[in-house]
Design goal:
- By secondary structure, the chain is an all-alpha fold.
- The longest helix is centred in the N-terminal third of the chain and has 35 residues.
Length: 357
């Protein structure tokens, strides 16, 4: 109850931190711009009186779409991870570890290489890739790949009617290896260097190709998906009571899981279609959110969304500035942070299972 009552304060704090990190993301980079200049440019752009010049172009045309896409993708991955952990009742579940991100990447890569006879633009970001088939072929293929991977992992982990942490992780790793091998095969078969660069973008993840025209679809999917999942907060809470407990309270767990898996796959697929595979956001952020506001999904989902947006905006800022003027793929940064966190969670989960067993 105490954690529930502090939810508004946590939301305000996260929102303020997100705004501050966004300003830092707009100001820092290969070209340093003062926060005052950033605010003048942003306010001018919002009021229709945007300043002209190199700084204004850098802030408004290059960095602003990137920061916004990072916030959208981070929020969506955190929400998806929160929901997946509730669906499988396992703290180690997330879109990356369960193969959803890998499946989305593989689906997108197949369309990139075989869906067109020519290379996709510059291939350094999502702009060229998303434009291959009218902007919709890649997101649709990413969604299909994400759904396939989640269903495959879930089916393998549920064999025998029970699901354990070890089986879930092994199934996720197996599916990831298979999809990684398929992606590598596609990379070998790619006919053009531009296609190869685009495929590498999907495997490493990145926000460098963000453009204003690409923000609409992922933003709409994030808002609609999060809204629908918030409406399903009570059934998600019932799953925390266990399979039998949820059924006793009137929840058709099989049908509910199927619906939410499809919805989660849609969110993951579309987001990954514009950012590539970025891991560990959906693993770490939900745990931090639970420690702040508890396990009730009505409070947990908004906190996770803001936390995921904040984390990915900061991770992308590190990716752009740590080795400037070179840029590190943001997926590498999240993996360097998330890898040790995952090992800690795995050790903690194994210790818990040993005590309860």
């Amino acid at each position: 109850m105490r954690r529930h009552h502090r939810t508004p304060a946590v939301l305000v704090l996260l929102a303020a931190a997100l705004v501050a990190s966004a300003v830092a993301g707009l100001a820092l980079g290969a070209v340093r711009i003062t926060p005052g200049q950033v605010l003048d440019i942003v306010l001018g752009g919002l009021t229709g009186d945007r300043p002209t010049g190199a700084f204004a172009s850098i802030v408004w045309d290059v960095r602003m779409p990137r920061v916004l896409l990072g916030a959208v993708v981070g929020a969506g991955l955190a929400v998806a991870g929160t929901v997946l952990q509730a669906l499988v009742r396992n703290p180690l579940a997330d879109p990356f570890l369960l193969g959803a991100s890998s499946g989305a990447s593989t689906g997108a890569v197949l369309v990139i290489v075989f869906g067109s006879g020519t290379a996709a633009g510059a291939g350094a970001g999502a702009a060229g890739a998303a434009g291959l088939l009218g902007g919709m072929g890649v997101p649709f293929a990413a969604f299909a790949g994400s759904a396939f991977a989640l269903v495959a992992v879930y089916a393998m982990a549920r064999r025998g009617g029970t699901m354990t942490t070890g089986r879930l992780i092994l199934a996720g790793v197996a599916v990831q290896y298979i999809l990684s091998a398929l992606t590598s095969l596609v990379l070998v078969l790619a006919a053009h260097p531009d296609q190869i660069r685009t495929v590498l973008f999907w495997t490493l993840g990145g926000l460098g190709g963000a453009r204003w025209g690409e923000l609409a679809l992922p933003s709409v999917v994030l808002l609609a998906g999060t809204g629908l999942l918030l409406a399903l907060a009570r059934p998600l809470d019932l799953l925390l009571a266990g399979e039998e407990g949820a059924r006793t309270l009137g929840l058709d767990t099989g049908r509910f899981r199927a619906v939410v898996f499809v919805l989660t796959s849609l969110v993951i697929g579309v987001l990954v279609a514009y950012s590539g595979a970025i891991g560990f956001v959906g693993l770490m952020v939900p745990h931090a959110a639970r420690m702040a506001v508890g396990a009730g999904h009505r409070a947990l989902l908004p906190v996770a969304a803001l936390g995921g947006a904040l984390f990915l905006v900061l991770a992308d800022l590190v990716a752009r500035t740590a080795a400037a003027p070179e840029e590190i793929p943001v997926g590498v940064v999240t993996a360097l942070v998330g890898g040790p966190f995952f090992l800690w969670m795995l050790r903690r989960s194994t210790r818990t299972e040993g005590v309860t067993g």
